[in-house]
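Form P-L/3: holo structure prediction, ligand S-adenosylmethionine.
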Amino acid sequence: MNFNRVAPYFERLEKIVFNKQMQRCRTAFISNLPPVKKIALVGEGNGQFLLELIQQSDCEQIHYIDSSQTMLELAQKRVQRFSKDAPSRVQFHLCDLSVQEMPDQNYDLVVTNFFLDVFDKPLLNKCILKIAASCKTNAVWLYADFQISGGIIQRIRALAWVKMMYLFFKFVAQLQTQKLLDPAEMLENQGFKLKELREFNRGLMRAELRQRDINPR
Ligand SMILES: C[S@@+](CC[C@H](N)C(=O)[O-])C[C@H]1O[C@@H](n2cnc3c(N)ncnc32)[C@H](O)[C@@H]1O
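OUTPUT (holo model):
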């Protein structure tokens, strides 16, 4: 799997297809975050969420994590264009979480926007375990992704969209899975309980704010 080829077109494509809905979904809970000291943005891509976070949070340690060199460079340029000082708050890590460990530990907040949907079940479980293990006891997890839910018409519409997107990413990014999995149970098993949920684009996307209880199952 490699997002380098599609990276330069990702934002334009997203806006043509979904207008501002993906960004609304990513940033749904950005203004209700508790004060945090250390944040990991995993599979952050071209840095659209990162820039919003820099503008809305004064957190001094933000770790950008992605396996695509092109995505990482796009995110770096976006941050540099915004401000000369902002990059000092961000560490950029080129890291393939399917084979490497998280670059650091003790995160208060982890963010996975449209990232967990790229994995099959074993890899999804492995990545969630790695991310969860890098978090502090009461960490917050912001999750945004596509979903198949709702009534029959809504589900058929979502299935059609998801099928098309997976086919597209199979060709442009060699995506290995063709099935959208719901990570809710795996997140719950790691103690991350659902606190808030919002849906976008007639239920095609959902944003969740989860927080870990002190005693995970
Ligand atoms: C669908 S894109 C989403 C990007 C961004 N979070 C967003 O909301 O637009 C998935 C991102 O995950 C990254 N990615 C895929 N597999 C990865 C892995 N094993 N480890 C780290 N990043 C990965 C890709 O390079 C890509 O930037």
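COMMENT: Strands lie at 38-42, 61-66, 90-94, 107-113, 135-146, 192-200, 205-212.
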